[in-house]
Amino acid sequence: DTGVSQDPRHKITKRGQNVTFRCDPISEHNRLYWYRQTLGQGPEFLTYFQNEAQLEKSRLLSDRFSAERPKGSFSTLEIQRTEQGDSAMYLCASSLEGTGTQYFGPGTRLTVL
Amino acid sequence: AQTVTQSQPEMSVQEAETVTLSCTYDTSESNYYLFWYKQPPSRQMILVIRQEAYKQQNATENRFSVNFQKAAKSFSLKISDSQLGDTAMYFCASRQGGSEKLVFGKGTKLTVNP
Question: Does residue B109 belong to the interface with chain A, where contact is any CB pair within 8 Å?
Answer without folding.
Answer: no
